[in-house]
Every structure is written in structure tokens, then in C-alpha cells.
Description:
alpha+beta; Nuclear Transport Factor 2, Chain: A
Amino acid sequence: xxxxxxFIIGSTLILFCFQKAYGQPSFEDPDSVIDQxxxxxxxxxxxxxxxxxxxxxxxxxxxxxxxxxxxxxQTYRSLTPEEYMERNDAFFRMRGFYVEEIHRTxxxxxxxxHLFSTYQPRLDAEGSEQPPGLQQQSGxxxxxxxxxxxxxxxxxxxxxxxxxxxxxxIPKQYGGQESGSSM
Length: 183
């Protein structure tokens, strides 16, 4: 009986360690959530791991972008992580997209954390035309990311982002260049 219990405990520990070591992130560390977010969004044309992407987000998570519309007006667009996946899946299947974090500022109090994560996207030079309605990504931007710690792991609860523009350069404290320099 004792050996049977040790076998069950040992097998469970081995499976747990195997899962952590082979592609099942634990997200016990907030850096692992952010690093995984950028990793899952980056890649050559084809399928992206949307299951992993979705696992980064709390069930109540929201996303949004402060953008310039076709008339030049500033506007806000919100969506859920599921809507983000639906909206961008065709684009990721057709085009290689790579996004790199180039600067991060973090503030934490207990089980809540806020990050300003400056990013720089890049599209593959080769590949099919972009799906209708998608604008080419260029330049840099800032993700304002809020994380919460719940159920012994970190979750993204909100991502709000905007891209750098001529009238809105990224400030030096978020990895921008000296004032007066061009984009």
C-alpha cells in the first residue's frame, strides 16, 4: 500500500514537472506572462497558438486601442481577447508578424501590477497581400498592461495600446528618443 501511494505521488510530481518543462507555462512570474504574450504574437505566416494567447488573459479581460480614424480623429476601440483573435487570425495566417518589447516600466502593489511596455512591430518583407481593412503596422507604440494575481498566477486583466505618431512621440522615460529628434 505504501509503495502504491509513493508511486502515485511520484508519478504526479513527474507529470507536473514535465508539463512545466515542455510548453505549459505556469505564469507564477509576471515577466513570464508578458514574455509569452510577445512570443505568441510573433511568428512566421500560419497558425498562431491562440489557446496559449487566451490562457494569458483573465476571464474578465479587456483590450483596447487609442487610434486615429480615417478622418484623422482620435478614437477608442475596445475588444475582448476573443475578438482580437477573430479579427487578426487571417492576418497572422497570411503575414509574418514580429513584435519586440524594447522598453518596460513596471509598478506593483501587492497582487496588482501596471506596465508600460514599449514595442516595435515588424512585418515580413515577403508574403501575400494583407487582408482588406488591415493597415500595415510600422513604428513603435506602448502597451499599457494591467496584471492581477489570482489563483496563484498572474493574469492580464487589461491591455490598452496606442502607436507613436509625429504629434505623439514616445517619451524618453518609456524608451523614446531625446526630445527634438525625429521618429
